[in-house]
Structure prediction request, 339 residues.
Amino acid sequence: MKKVLLLGGAGFIGYNITKYLAENRAYKITIADNFFRGGGKIDEMLQSLIDEHDISVIAGDFTDPNIFNNLEGDYDYVYMLASVVGVDYVNKIPHEIIRINTALIYNTLEWLRNSDCGKILFTSTSECYAGAVEAFDYTIPTPESVPLTINEIGHPRFTYAVTKMLGESGFLNYSRQLGFECTIIRYHNVFGPRMGFKHVIPHLAQRFTNGENPFKIYGHDQTRAFNYIDDAVEGTVLAMEKGGNGEIYHIGTQEEITIEELIRYTGELMGFEGEYEYAPTYPGSVARRCPDISKAQRDLNYEPKVNWKDGLKRTIDWYIDYLENNKELHESFYDNKGK
Prediction:
């Protein structure tokens, strides 16, 4: 039975990978997390999963290197998912994004120096190369060979991307020197139920719930390719189990849509009958992003199954129910925005 460690296993993607592995693989699973999302506590959904599948839990702040002493040293697979992400966070606490994510990366790499782990999968982001599309008119859909580029190094919007670029370089170079296998994946706009409230789709659900009218469409003509969580999880596990050593894979879809399409369909799902109006885009937000996933299709047999409309409906249905039962969340959202 393979031993699997998920660093950041309580987060949005981490929880869903844990669930998938527990239900589909005969693995001995350990999750390590500080449980920030639950205010330092394990939420009900995760606790149920832990109890049902006898999952081990290591709780602690992994920006402290001493916490790694609580881990075993011989995992077959290590999923490195731990990081702070979210547009709100990078704009409000960019210095903490740098501190936390850099510490998590460095501490994990140094722990691996004295461990005997088989393969590491580091989860990166499409944000790493967004500047190449803007600055050099790089091809879209965009392959893994794209130069990693930051347009404005001092902008807080790119602090998350900078830490992920560090992680890609760090894991690839440490793996060659220390002799463990390593694969990198770059996520592209993963979404789904339970993703928190620091991303575009939950923000839309909150704004529609609060009755914003006219409803502002920020960056209406920008495009993205949204990747439903079930497909992202399958791609992640395939990359761990089949991905080549030292290889990078784009995990996403090639269904490129405009932000206006996303917002108008969300409004339709939420019964919005008001008016829309265009508004300026958020600073630092790129005009287009869509991955070339042909390498993942060829090497991993990765094939997204959920189209963006079906995935959005599942997600919005979940958030409608959640917000209805937690009204203070969308009320506090507007209080925090000063509206």
User: Anything to note?
Assistant: DSSP finds twelve helices and 13 strands in the chain. The first helix runs from residue 12 to 24. Residues 9 and 15 are 5 Å apart (CA to CA). The two ends are 53 Å apart (CA to CA).
